Amino acid sequence: MHLVEVTDVEHFTPEYFKFKTLKPEGYDFKAGEFAAIGMEDKKVLRAYSFTSAPEDDFLEFYSIKIQDG
């Protein structure tokens, strides 16, 4: 498990947004893979597909807001 900092959030609509995080040193993934992401103070994990390229120095994900989610 990696604890990373969210560095950017961009909203496209009130429900649709993207966020970027720092990429841990040595962290590798292949296109099409996903990560289980949660908040430090919550026990719920959600699956997010990487939208950044494996060679990028950040991790990027797109998401939608879900009421009570």
Describe the structure.
- With 69 residues, the chain is an all-beta fold.
- The protein has one domain (6-64): Elongation Factor Tu (Ef-tu), domain 3 (Beta Barrel), CATH 2.40.30.10.
- The chain is built from no helices and five strands.
- The strands form two sheets. It has a three-stranded antiparallel sheet with strand order 1-2-5, with no helix packed on it.
- Strand 3 and strand 4 form a beta hairpin.
- The two termini are 22 Å apart.
- The mean pLDDT is 92.
Topology summary:
Blueprint (H helix, E strand, L loop, with lengths): L5 E6 L4 E7 L11 E5 L6 E5 L8 E7 L5
Antiparallel strand pairs: 1-2, 2-5, 3-4
What strand line-up does the widest sheet have?
A: 1-2-5
**Protein structure class:** mainly beta
**CATH homologous superfamily heading:** Translation factors
Assign an overall shape: globular
Please sum up the structure shown.
The chain is an all-beta fold and 69 residues long.
